[in-house]
Amino acid sequence: MKNLFYRFGLLLLLGGMHPGFAQESESVTDPDSSGVENSRLLPTSTPVLLFSAVEDEEKKDKKKKKRKKNVYFGEKTKKTLLKSSFREQVTYQVFHFTLNHRQPDPYIRDIYWYDSRNKAIKSSGYRPSAGYLLHGPYERRIGENVVESGMYYYGTKHGRWMSFDGKNILLDKRHYAEGWPKDSRITYYNRGERKIEKLTPIEYELEEGNYYHFYPDGQVAVTGEYRYGEKVGLWTAYWPAEKDKTVKKREIQYQPEAFTADFKPYIRAEWDREGKLIYRSTN
Fold first, then answer.
1. Domain ranges within the chain, ordered by starting residue
2. CB 238 within 8 A of CB 247
3. In which element (H, E) is residue 71 found?
4. How far apart are CA 257 and CA 272, in angstroms?
5. Whether pTM exceeds 0.85
6. Of 34, 77, 114, 273, which has fewest CB within 10 angstroms of its CB?
7. 35-87, pLDDT tens digit by residue?
């Protein structure tokens, strides 16, 4: 009997060394093997007439004497209330959302949406199947006191946003245009034709949000993120697009969070014009 178990175990061991098993292990795809960018959210050209579309709609709305109930920027919305409690403090969020799906602007970092399943407002990970874009006025109250108010436009902050303390004293006031801070810095190759070279989001004189650098033809050259004036996360440079194919040139890894002590940026990977990997860091 003992000899039988030994033979059975040997067969299992040999079976695990079958060539088919080795081929299955080798079939794992190397995420850096190709630099061809397949992300659907990667912008392929610069924003067109930045900030103008909503401003035109606002002008039309101002001309109307009576606003239709729950209609904002020409879009019918639904009004909702969320209530949450922490110890003896009750917080209310009153907001509107639209049932119509609109592809979020890939240039904007924070897209706000209502997760109807979990009854929560989120600022990332939006999917039409999971919830709805916030659209229209928003108000957050603690008890009877308003502590934050503003307007959303298809998931992005728009117009004037204000926050208050518990005694209704103004703490902060910010202005947005379709998700972009109003103070964002824009440089142009040709201002008359609105050929944007660089888009740098600015809040309180500090870089904050997604940064973009474009080639003269409008294709993305560099993308990255700022937080509190510091470069964070993975910054990606791209080769000039050819035949509608976007290929990564280089990825540079910056600190995961702003003000991370003793973190030194490094080149994570590089690719040639065809998307072939030519360098990868061992970090």
1. 41-180, 183-283
2. yes
3. strand 71-72
4. 29
5. no
6. 273
7. 887 665 566 555 544 444 455 555 555 555 566 889 999 999 999 999 999 88
